[in-house]
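@channel sequence for tomorrow's demo:
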Amino acid sequence: MRANYKMQRLFIDAPLAAGATIHPDKAQSNYLLNVLRMGEGAELLVFNGRDGEWRAVLRQPGRKQAALDIAEQVRPQPEPSDLVYCFAPLKSGRLDYMVQKAVEMGAGVLQPVMTHHTQMPKVNVERMAANAVEAAEQCGILSIPACREPVKFDRLLADWDTGRRLIFCDEDAATNNPLAILQALEKAPLGVIIGPEGGFSDAERAQLRALPFVTAIPLGPRILRADTAAVAALAVIQATVGDWG
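structure tokens (generated this afternoon):
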């Protein structure tokens, strides 16, 4: 069922059921009452990533406090996406963009990976989660991706579930077209890994190519920035072996 894009959507981290009353926190109440200027009786859609999407009616029990009366479910909760998106962290503004786009493109897990050329030694996982929620609110997504703590490149590969195909975006691939490679893959759970702005090191590239559960693909004839590569990779993967089919 398609999302209703005409109504405001709000993520609420609380159980949702018909007849329940939810009390948004101070920041969310301010957003509803003062930013959106919603008044008594206004309707919006709420979701929590677990219980589907619900129509809610706003009340204002206090000057600065909102309450949401949960009326009815309008969309059931879908199965969460199984796509694991692994990426080398970028500088904050570009990382925000990449996280939002990965959520929009159907990533079910966001896994930062520390590689040889990673420029950002730390990742603010809370900020990453907030960006994931914002993207879900804006794009009608009901499942919030899991936002994991960063892991080192070697540890990621050592702990990888070998039953999950890991698609490696290799700027040094011999061809420019990823379609034939992806279309030849057997149906299986998927992960994708995008390198940092400086690319993977030669040692990392060799390590990836030596693993039987890794498939290398190109992303066309042009050099892409890491955040652009994320969108390109997820689009072509979803269109060929992902959930677009």
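heads up for whoever presents: The CA atoms of residues 40 and 59 lie 5 Å apart.
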